[in-house]
Amino acid sequence: MPNVIVSPCGTSLLTNQIDDSLRKLINRNSNLKEAEISSEDKAQIDRHYQQRSQELNEEDIEGAKKLSAELNGILTYSKGQISTSDHYYLIATDTYVGGLTATLVTDWIQSHQGNAFLTIIRDLSTKEIETFRLAMSEIVRWCDYELNNQYPQPAWKRIFNLTGGFKSVNGFLQALAMFYADESIYIFESDGQLLTIPKLPIKLSPEDDLANNLDIFRRLAILGHEIPANECQNISGALLEQVDGRASLSEWGQLVWQQFSGGHYQNQLLPPLTSKLKYSEEFVIDIQSLPRDRLAIINARLDDLTRCLESNGEYNPRSLRFHSLEGRLFRGRLSPEPTHECYAWSDKDAKRIYGHFEDNVFIIDKLGLHL
Fold first, then answer.
1. In this predicted structure, what is the pLDDT of residue 255?
2. One Pfam annotation, family name (predicted)?
3. Which pTM does this prediction carry?
């Protein structure tokens, strides 16, 4: 079974085995973007980056482990080798120094024939608590999309390598590991041995919060809207972030949504989230006979369509592909004639969602076969 190993990156590769003055300079700039760093400091950091890149490429396995905490965890786990069947994700902070460090680790793994991927999490830094919490929500979405969709269990074994990275990020990832990873690994500092923490049988119990407030959760999660806090009084406080009387989903609210919303999407056709979308009676009838797995797909696709309409077409993923129709394809079988379509699903019988606009409102006419 191949592994997918997720490693948050700190600055150890740039700060190990250097003098105090350079270490202080790097630490002083560790939470800054490139434009925020002075030209003098950036020139020193860039020179050190080039030198460290050369040093790392000249090191053997043991030398690489001493320079990089992230590589120490990866190589200790894999007994000193980079596996060509495993995939390695390096999670970088949204900072200049963070990007440089993660790039060095990624390049080193790739130079040893490994499948390494650099992922920068938007807003991730330890500079401000507000942006940090936004970044934690982004990590939840990344785990749900990347790990659940690209690396399904049990075909892949998911490992969180928490040897490197920042303590605040790793604390959150350790909690996420209980839901997304098979195990977490650390290097036990006193003797360099690998410490493995298996996935624990933990289960959240958000059924009441989610089931009783599904429309509110959808508005917060799908549209990304902040809504008046007084509309969220029946939702547990830990699931919300409240500022100036407005509420949004916290990082834990995002986790609850990603983990448990799917079950509710299989039960019934969910109502539109926006006044820009309406369902015809024929469309509602078409949906009634669908099996539960297809109903879940329809509800998810309607979420995508909602975001597309609300963004005036800027959000239009390949899984949706909302576009206008050419010609009179229905030949009078529907009145008014549908003018637009989007994907429902592309496997099996390849259904499409057809509809038309009336006064800037998209009315779904029918769920039908691809024409």
1. 80
2. Cas_APE2256
3. 0.67
